[in-house]
Amino acid sequence: MALVSLRNVSKVYPPASKGAPSVTAIDSVSLDVEAGDIYGIIGYSGAGKSTLVRLVNALEHSTSGEIIVDGQDIAVLSERELRKVRLGIGMIFQQFNLLGSRTVARNVAYPLEVAGHPKEQRAARVAELLDFVGLADKAGSFPDQLSGGQKQRVGIARALATQPSILLADEATSALDPETTHEVLALLKRVNAEFGVTIIVITHEMDVIQTIATKVAVMDQGRVIERGPVFDVFSNPQAAASARFVSTVVKGVPSAAELAVLRERHTGRIVTLAFRDSAVDQTAVFGELARAGVAFEVVYGGINEIQGRPFGHLTLALSGADPVIDQVLAHIRTLTTVTEVR
Amino acid sequence: MDALIDLLPELWTATYETLYIVALTLFFGGLGGLLVGLGLYLTRAGSILENKPLFFVLNLLVNFIRPIPFIIFLAAAQPLARAVTGSGIGNNAIIFTIALAASFAMARIVEQNLLTVTPGVIDAARSVGAGPIRIIFTVLLPEALGPLILGYTFIFVALVDMSAVAGYVGGGGLGNFALLYGYRQFNPIVTWAAVLLIIVLVQFVQFFGNYLARKALRR
């Protein structure tokens, strides 16, 4: 049984004014998040990903479908019952949403107050959490005295206060610079590894997915159009929107425009080779070319690593006699996928 | 000038009465304004206790009462004041009427100040399981405290103003003093003395309000 399981969930907003159409933010989405996953949900703005994650802790209510969290269908619970469920689900936000009137320590203590923990216990837990996120020296500071990265670390400490089993991260790094983003992502990875917290990450940045997610779902217009292990989606995206996201971090096959530029400089034949995991041995492929006496230049592409597994596409400009090239390409085709671009 | 010196005991009594009226109306009107303002904020579309009919009624009521000039409102609300306080004139009736008018004026200020609280902070509180009552006391009011203090300071000045007008229907205070001994006896020095006291009072409270708001905002 998945820890979070969505079954045909839809969220339809009523028309904004009379006569206007109603807006379907989530369109019969089914999704399973297993315990221990770092599940990435990626999509452009308006794809419905934030709405989707807000359904998981019932900050918003679904129109239809089942939302099963830890074996309980939360779609049928009352607001009062939901408050108990929410204690087991932490959430962090793009704008951090810390209480400006409270110190860092009292922000982290807030969920413990809500949960009714006694004061002495709260202090010990807050110290422990601030230590974990590396902000023990900021306990008495106010949020407006902190940098963005520090604020998000307070947000994480607050979200973890009641030891939830699930953490929802709604564009948690979108307001941060690249370096701080990676600090925060590294912290989320530790949260997952050390406390076994299942994390659902909402983002529009493929880099975030690449850095921490184990599984990914791609959303477009309220639907999940593709899902799977991150490596599979990155190395072999099926939907056009997924391919566009992948291309933001991975240089794959050159586009028509890029090809035109390459053509200006290279008059010979151009081929794109796919390298996927250890299934394809680069040494063998380049050995074939060398043995046949075909000179080549890498003109486009790159090799990436997702969860320790390399993959990518390399586009080569070949120079040599046509029959020789045909022969060597035939050999290489037995090793990997070759696409000749014209 | 001699007239003013003779009137000094009356002037102090009037000042005391003004303070008394303003203090009580600030308390009751402030409380009423807080409740109606919270009602407006909480029931509006998208808020945590969204309730369209209730919001509509509250909104209409506030819009209906707020534009009425206070001197007209004083006369119009007199039967109500009589029903509640037992008399249509005198300090108690005045305090009731001012508190009523101030509630609706303050409601709008409270509502607007609460709207400055980022909705995300309320999401954060909801996400850890906080209910509406807890959100009001641990998120909304503390987060909006600075602007709320400034709002109450603003309404204090309006209350001094209203209490002066109330001199017309038998309320005491500096307004009544200025009318009775200054204006009607053609003695501008007496009027100016009352005005001066009002200015000092308002300055002092404004300064104090600013100080408290600065503390709440930590600036």
Give a structural overview.
The complex is a heterodimer of chains A (342) and B (219). Chain A is an alpha/beta fold and 342 residues long. Chain A has 2 domains: 4-88 and 164-249, Rossmann fold (3-Layer(aba) Sandwich), CATH 3.40.50; 256-341, 2-Layer Sandwich (Alpha-Beta Plaits). Chain A has helices spanning 49-56, 79-87, 104-115, 119-132, 148-160, 178-195, 206-212, 230-235, 240-249, 256-265, 282-292, 322-333, and strands at 4-13, 23-33, 38-42, 64-69, 72-73, 89-93, 166-170, 198-203, 215-220, 223-229, 269-276, 295-306, 309-319, 338-341. In chain A, the strands form 3 sheets. A 6-stranded mixed beta sheet of chain A has the order 6-7-8-3-9-10, sandwiched between helices. In chain A, a hairpin with a 2-residue loop joins β12 (295-306) and β13. Chain B has one domain (2-217): MetI-like (MetI-like fold, Orthogonal Bundle). In chain B, 81% of the residues lie in helices and 0% in strands. The longest helix of chain B is centred in the first third of the chain and has 42 residues, at 2-43. In chain B, 42% of the residues are buried. The mean pLDDT of chain B is 91. Chain B: InterPro entries: AA_ABC_Transporter_Permease, MetI-like, MetI-like_sf. Chain B: It comes from Cryobacterium gelidum. Chain B: Residues 15-207 form the ABC transmembrane type-1 domain.
